[in-house]
Amino acid sequence: MTAPPTSTSRIAGAFARLKEEGKTALMPYHAAGFPTLEGSRKIIASLVEAGADMVEIGIPFSDPIADGPSVQVASQIALEQGTRLTDCIDLVRQLRAEGMTAPLLFMGYYNPILKYGVARYVAECAAAGVDGFIVPDLPTEESDTLRHECLIHGRDLIFMVAPTSTESRLASAAARGSGFLYCVSVTGVTGARKRMSATLDDYIERIRSHTDLPLAIGFGISKPEHVSQVGKIADGAIVGAALIDALNEVPDVEKPARAAAFVRYLRG
User: Fold this and answer.
1) In 3-state terms, what secondary structure has residue 215?
2) Do 109 and 231 touch, CB atoms closer than 8 A?
3) Rg of the chain on CA atoms, in Å
4) pLDDT band at 194 (very low <50, low <70, confident <90, very high)
5) CA distance 33 to 31
6) Would the CA dihedral through 91, 96, 101, 106 be positive or negative?
7) Strand 132-134 vs strand 25-31: parallel, antiparallel, or unpaired?
8) What is the pTM of this model?
9) What domains are defined for the chain?
10) Catalytic machinery residues
11) Is the bond leading into 35 cis (omega within 30 degrees of zero)?
């Protein structure tokens, strides 16, 4: 199966522009429906207005096996309020209608996608303005159906790799993915950490030997120093749990402003 023409995607375009400008892509994660759907809309808008280059929108799920406590709690709050997959798609549609042009990605597990219908899911997401998909529990060897629909609709399918990934799995993720590769920085779940892995440079060098795709590092990034360190060896820094923790420090009405302040903080 031929790889999709990533040069025409909004995600690839953003990485190409940032590379020319000598900048690291700042890629915050936000759980749709946290603290409410309307709150999510305002928070995502604030993230982009403050300088986020693209946003990963988490689809709430009851069993987020790759996520630590911060993301789990945010997801649970969204579920308790009745946030569903259709609401997440509508959220992107509304953001696009309001003029947002930054790349928007869905980060979600495969079970809701399968239940919704893979073809229907990709088609409706594409129509709403979703640019790509990260599916943490979808291995490359099981990705044919979703990848086929992404090819049809010109969407990026982003695979996750980890320090424990074998050379063959790194090669497979690189060959079948588009947009960028999501490089999990540690062996473990999401969560803010005080320092980055001491073996991060060697790990990223291993991945680079398999692909020319942009590399975005996630899991554990929480400080401007982390973003700076990532920028020396990769193309993007993904921030999730640390942002959620920051939002939890203030009342709901203040969360959009807190989100913007946190992006500016990470930019140093």
Assistant:
1) strand
2) no
3) 17
4) low
5) 6
6) positive
7) unpaired
8) 0.92
9) 6-263 (3.20.20.70)
10) 56, 67
11) yes
